[in-house]
Amino acid sequence: MPKRKDIKKILLIGSGPIIISQACEFDYSGTQACKALREEGYEVVLINSNPATIMTDPETADRTYVEPITPEAVEKIIARERPDALLPTLGGQTGLNAAVALAESGVLRKYNVEMIGASLDVIHKAEDREKFRHAIEKIGLRMPQSGFARSMNDVLKIAADIGFPIIVRASFTLGGTGSGVAYNREELMEIAKAGLDASMISEVMIEESVLGWKEYELEVMRDKADNVVIICSIENFDAMGVHTGESITVAPAQTLTDKEYQNMRDAAIAIMREIGVETGGSNVQFAVHPQTGELIVVEMNPRVSRSSALASKATGFPIAKIAAKLAVGYTLDEIPNDITRETMASFEPTIDYCVVKIPRWTFEKFPQAEDFLTTSMKSVGETMAIGRTFKESLQKAVRSLEIGRFSLEQALPDHIPDKKEFLKSKLIKPNSLRLFYIAAAMQNGLSIEELYRLTKIDPWFLHQIREIVDAENEIKESTPSVEVLREAKKMGFSDRALASFWKMTEPQIRQWREKGKIIPVYKLVDTCAAEFEAYTPYYYSTYETENETRLSDKRKVAIIGGGPNRIGQGIEFDYCCVHASFALREEGVESIMINSNPETVSTDYDTSDKLFFEPVTLEDVLHILQTEKPEGVIVQFGGQTPLNLAKGLETAGINILGTSPDAIDRAENRDRFQEIVTKLKLNQPDNDTARDTQKALQAAERIGYPVLVRPSYVLGGRSMEIVYDEETLKSFMEKALLVSPEHPILIDKFLEDAVEIDVDAVSDGETTVVAGIMEHIEEAGIHSGDSACMLPPLTIPGDVLDLIRKQTTMLAKELNVIGLMNIQYAVKDGKLYVLEVNPRASRTVPFVSKAIGVPLAKLATKVMLGKSLKELGFTESPRPKHISVKEAVFPFNRFPDVDILLGPEMKSTGEVMGIDQSFGLAFAKSQMATGFKIPQQGTVFISVNDQHKDRIVTVAKTFQKIGFKILATKGTALYLLEHGISAGVVLKLSEGRPNIVDFIKNGDMQIVINTSIGRKSSRDAYHIRHSALIYNILYTTTIAGARALAEATVAIKEKAWQVCSLQEYQKA
Questions:
Q1: Mean pLDDT for the stretch of residues 73-84
Q2: Three-state SS for 724?
Q3: What value, to the nearest 5°, has the Cα angle with vertex 994 and ends 990 and 996?
Q4: Residue 693, class by beta-carbon neighbours within 10 Å (0-12 exposed, 13-18 middle, 19+ buried)?
Q5: Non-local CB neighbours of 611 within 8 Å, separated by 6+ positions
Q6: I want to staple 251 with a disulfide (CB 3.0 to 4.6 A). Which of 217, 314, 507, 678 is the partner?
Q7: What's the pLDDT band for 1021 if we cut at 50, 70, 90?
Q8: Distance (Å, whole) CA 266 – CA 502
Q9: Considering only CA atoms, which of 590, 669, 602 is closest in space to residue 631?
Q10: Is 299 helix (H, G, I), strand (E, B) or coil?
């Protein structure tokens, strides 16, 4: 069928901020869909609250609404834009849930908007577990036995019928929130209670356990003409019991017999037909009994899923793009495959290589959280590697993780009485390092049978790891030779690993390889196992003979991406890399992208002229650059990952474009930066460096507590802390010296109650333009990535702003910045201090670009190519009339034992943006976008530290004036009463019942304001904040945050808020 002509305008719902379980895969799929629909001539209207994505660039859709993804906001957009259709299947669970709410409330009917991609019936049939079970049983398939519970009584009754162990899953949640495995009644009560609390409809499913079964996923597409294609089979390395987003996964599936695969394929097709998915992609999950081969259905997603991005990158088949075209009426046999240009999308992809994905966890950010992988997701990102064999792919994936590992070696702690017992404890419970403990167990004599019994990982995978471990031992024992080296490289061993095995250096191994002509070749990802010619140059490396790269004699530049997403280095850096690619295309320069992240737009096959899906390590990047010979490389856009390679690349004779690595080092190296500060006569908080605990204690004594301590050369405030006393400093130093052993520890005077400022600028070496000055809403001491901030600044005097512009220009000139630069300042008692300078892209670049309407990363790329800002017409930054607020989004609900108090170490996974004409409304929108409701009435709870009591009075008065009741703990209530505010007293936890937590649980609190001084928060305060988090109550842990909340509540109460597109704001 040809495309539909009765639809002109389509509304797309994005997925909102990057959170655990819903990351940038949906930015990738949404961006693809926007491109595909506009290609077909449709007008696209987009809503998404995430400023860090390519999807919310004003060029991606015709109208871009950076607004909260709530049914209320989407209704306002529908009323304003009057779209003909709504496509909800590309925005993850967020987009799907918003669309369902709009359909059920009658909004779509009221405005005559058709839901395309998936009907309401289809969504319910797939998402409602009871309806899904009936559908599965109707077609003769089996699901685990289960029941639905809405109370603890129901839970116990169902559990008695099913028997332990039991899986608990909360309904209408994402990525396994509120779920877990219970082995006894006590655990069941705990997990089920948390699940009932987390569920939007207070419902949990109690399910028969299929722990230990093998888990698989099929990515499937179906069209209106009943054409069905299986895009990719994916096998989980871990057995059932570990969320599929937490497991190492392998494509294609490795351990299925042909008969088992055909059964699974038939089952997936039958499910698609029964559920009624007929215009798009779906993901169906299965479990297979390891001994009997019995097949059961786990679940399906009637939308583009997390695995769709992985399957698209693994096969080269653009699932989201095709899904968007199916939604507007095409059938699979009418859509050409971009890669071959000969076959149609109904031609099933075939791959002749192996793909391995490994999740990237950041447990180091949450030391109180247990490193235990279960049915609830905890990983923040993932990396993917492609090789000819599983062994090669696995080893490439390990070094792509960027956790300092270049082999499967795992050092065991000293003084373990029984190594085998220690290893068994690490193998029984799935954890982020289990792969490495398996290798260690093999080194320590555990058999494959024993490992299978402990881990339930299929013996085939264990044999593969055994072969890697055996090869490692052979290499260590053999005399280095060209033959051994060649075999080791074929198996995926890195130069770094081989250097450590043979007691050589990495450059020595590299030189030896080059001399022996042991260098990788590049193969094409072509969707068809080389049956047809591939037109899109998308490559992976392997050690074979035939090289498939196509060298051109055009001007070309390589961009090094940021590797896997993690807290501290997220999608914002991928955004900058994509913009670099766009800029190169505009300038007629061939772009070469090097990255290992399957979730992002940078690794889409048509973003750059060439894509190398490779680990971002010196070895792998150098191979590509030596093959392609670009005129230069951009390292300043991908965060710390490419910057860490800059010196090695420069030593190898590679031309680094833009700001030099030496200038970056001058800014990052404390002593060298001190020289700049002194030369330019700038103010800096008193500081020192230390390489041992004794020196640190002396430095802190001289500077005076509180001090801010951190290792040098880290991103995202890793291991950064504000220290108020000697004891805390001692324990900090022990940890910090482990994180950054070769670099000194930095010690600064902490400026309490200072206002922190972030500045993004672009310079061409002559002209420097200060593009955005952002004022942090929280006081200094909270990591800039975690603090809410506003642009333009609202409380900074004009003379200080002028000084900021002047000092930024001075620093850019001194460092000879060519490209982007970010500076953090603090203002205390009217004095301006420089905190740090980063002559590279920062995580605020996408936010500032959208707030001022100028694509900064694009401009910076053109500057790096030699253009001046004058030529580009950017010599002065626009001063927007609207207010933009950036707010951080945190993963605390995934880590139940972690306190939500913020500090200088970054903990947020993503961000949202609120835009309006007033600060109050912009801040209110940012809070709504993070998932909070701004209450119009009710009770505000206040409990603040003595040092904050004088500053909370105006906040309390504001809330009282607009009709809120105030409740406070005894000390705060007395202080408020003395200042004319009537406040009721509520008990602390330690004072008896009913206490504040009881009030929160009973729904009697609408806003919680609870501050602490330093890291030493009381147990009471922890429980208050934790309850607010679980019950999704608006909370703040800072005075500045409380002020902003008061202003937002007043603004929402005073007038109805409106929506406006980015394109309109930028025209104003």
A1: 97
A2: coil
A3: 65
A4: middle
A5: 537, 538, 539, 592, 593, 595, 603, 604, 605
A6: 314
A7: confident
A8: 51
A9: 590
A10: strand
1025-1049 burial, b at 16+ Cβ within 10 Å, e below that, comes to bbbbbbbebbbbbbbbbbbbbbbbb
Q: What is the mean pLDDT of residues 65-88?
A: 96
pLDDT number for residue 745: 82
Is 325's pLDDT higher than 60? yes
Which has the closest alpha carbon to 156: 194, 193, 200?
A: 193
What DSSP assignment string belongs to 580-630?
HHHHHHHTT-EEEEEE--TTSGGGSTTTSSEEEE---SHHHHHHHHHHH--
**How is residue 815 written in tokens?**
């460092």
362 CB-contact burial (10 Å; exposed 0-12 / middle 13-18 / buried 19+):
buried
Each residue of 548-565: b (16+ CB within 10 Å) or e?
A: ebeeeeeebbbbbbbbbb
Per-residue exposure over 110-140, b if at least 16 CB sit within 10 Å of its own CB, e if not:
ebebebbbbbeebbbbbbebeebbebbeeee
Using alpha carbons only, what angle is made at residue 282 by residues 252 and 3, rounded to the nearest 5 degrees? 115
Tally: H helices and E strands in the chain: 36, 38
Query: What is the reported pTM?
Result: 0.92
Contact 821, 762 (CB under 8 A): yes
Which amino acid, 48? Answer: N
Collapsing DSSP to helix, strand or coil, 556 comes out as strand
For 634, the enclosing helix (H) or strand (E) is: strand 632-634
Burial 953-981 (b: 16+ CB within 10 A, else e): eebbebbbeeebbbbbbeebbebbeeeeb
Structure tokens at 182: 């219970």
Query: For tokens 């031992």, what's the residue?
Result: 473
Identify the CA nearest to 492 among candidates 563, 630, 397.
397
Residue type present at position 1066? Q
Task: Output the six-digit token pair for 100.
Answer: 């369902």
DSSP structure class, residue 958: H
First-last CA distance in the chain: 42
Confidence of residue 129 (pLDDT cuts 50, 70, 90): confident
Q: Over 70: is that where the pLDDT of 663 sits?
A: yes
760: tokens are 């993004």
For the chain, how many residues are written? 1068
Mean pLDDT across the stretch 1000-1014?
83
Gap between the Cα atoms of 627 and 650, Å rounded:
16
Coil, strand or helix at 991: helix
With beta carbons less than 8 A apart as the criterion, state whether 717 and 710 touch: yes
Number of CB atoms found within 10 A of residue 163's CB: 10
How far CA 1051 is from CA of 66, 915, 933, 952, 1055, in Å, comes to 19, 13, 14, 19, 6
HEC string of 107-139 equals HHHHCCCEECCCCHHHHHHHHCHHHHHHHHHHC
Up-side HSE of residue 703: CA atoms within 13 Å toward CB? 28
Is 693:734 a contact under the CB 8 Å cutoff? yes
All residues at 6 or more sequence positions from 799 whose CB lies less than 8 Å from its CB, including other chains: none
The pLDDT of residue 371 is 76
Q: Do 739 and 705 touch, CB atoms closer than 8 A?
A: no
The region of weakest confidence among 17-26, 409-418, 1049-1058 is 17-26
User: Cα(504)–Cα(635) distance, rounded to whole angstroms?
Assistant: 28
Tell me the β-bridge partners of 923: none
Kindly tell me the sign of the dihedral angle through the C-alpha atoms of 906, 373, 97, 171: negative
Residues 201, 964: Cα–Cα separation, whole Å: 28
Query: Can you tell me which residue has the tokens 């559908």?
Result: 135
Each residue's pLDDT tens digit, 750-798: 887 889 999 999 999 999 999 999 999 887 777 777 788 999 999 999 9
Rounded Cα distance between 188 and 817, Å, is 58
